[in-house]
Automatic annotation (TrEMBL):
InterPro entries membership: AAA+_ATPase, ABC_transporter-like_ATP-bd, ABC_transporter-like_CS, ABC_transpr_LolD-like, Cell_div_FtsE, P-loop_NTPase
Family label: Belongs to the ABC transporter superfamily.
Main location: membrane
Lineage of the organism: Bacteria, Pseudomonadati, Pseudomonadota, Gammaproteobacteria, Thiotrichales
Membrane topology, record value: Peripheral membrane protein
Keyword Isomerase recorded: no
Protein name (record): Cell division ATP-binding protein FtsE
Subcellular location: Cell inner membrane; Cell membrane
Length: 214
């Protein structure tokens, strides 16, 4: 499903972020990417999301190299990916419902289907009944769950999360990880970058450790 073949990434500054990465993820797998700060975890996820491109090697999705995607195909490809950041970057002047509905509206989905999908996403992250709340009224954990619902609402086949629990206390962090595991059980391929070793160990999933390259 996701394959890295001899992938290296050097930023224009000359900083080498990844060196010769070989990695295969099966469809429906859930993996953690760990390693110290600066080890290249974010870069690895960005290569899958096509937010960055490799300097050497290839990233293949479903057997096809991302380097062969034309400019016009990239938005379509990105729609298959849900990206979750440490800070969910919610729109504070919109309700929870409108925040989650955003990707569907961008995709031009009709009202009733949008409502159905948003309710389903709210249900999966445990926020049913909070649709008319504004983000300022939510706890940090709830805000992050809104961010997750927004990333999931158009049913991405690949879920990428970059330190999704970085701002949360341990109990909430574990809840969030279980939410990802639920989406994984529904069939999504999930990659989570985290430097929280204790939490990653408790999840008992495949773990890839990146070493910092210089
Ligand atoms: P991690 O997520 O494990 O902390 P990153 O992928 O963010 O690691 O960074 C890997 C290395 O690449 C670090 O040395 C970092 O400073 C560098 N780096 C990351 N993004 C950029 C960028 N946009 N420009 C230059 N260097 C970068
Ligand atoms: P075909 O010509 O075989 O029908 P296209 O190249 O036109 O395939 O792509 C069809 C759809 O698949 C597009 O929406 C495109 O974004 C997506 N796609 C193409 N290549 C890839 C790839 N390597 N990984 C993921 N999606 C891809």
């Amino acid at each position: 499903m996701i394959e890295f073949k001899q992938v290296s990434k050097k930023y224009p500054t000359g900083q080498l972020a990844l060196y010769n990465i070989n990695l295969t993820l099966e469809a429906g797998e859930m993996v953690f990417i760990t390693g110290h700060s600066g080890a290249g975890k974010s870069t690895l996820l960005k290569l899958v999301a096509m937010l960055e491109r490799p300097t050497k090697g290839e990233v293949l999705i479903g057997g096809r190299s991302l380097s062969k995607l034309g400019r016009s195909q990239i938005p379509n490809y990105r729609r298959r990916i849900g990206f979750i950041f440490q800070d969910p970057h919610l729109l504070y002047d919109r309700t929870v419902f409108d925040n989650i509905a955003l990707p569907l509206r961008i995709a031009g989905m009709g009202q009733s289907e949008t409502r159905r999908r948003v309710q389903a996403a709210l249900d999966k992250v445990g926020l049913t009944g909070r649709e008319n709340t504004f983000p300022l009224m939510l706890s940090a954990g709830e805000k992050q769950r809104v961010g997750i619902a927004r990333a999931m609402v158009n049913k991405p086949t690949i879920i990428l999360a970059d330190e999704p629990t970085g701002n949360l206390d341990p109990e909430l962090a574990q809840d969030i990880m279980f939410t990802f595991a639920q989406f994984n059980e529904l069939g999504a391929t999930v990659m989570i970058a985290s430097h929280d070793h204790a939490l990653v160990e408790r999840m008992k999933k495949r773990t890839i450790v990146l070493q910092k390259v210089d």
